Amino acid sequence: MQITGNDKLKKYHLNRNDILLSTNSGFEIELFENKTNETALDIFPNSLFNKKVSLLNDNFVGFMMKMTDAKIIVFGDYEQRYDIPKIKTVEVGNNVIVDMELNEFASYRIKGV
Question: Which of 71, 72, 79, 82 is the most exposed place for a label (fewest CB within 10 A)?
Answer without folding.
Answer: 79
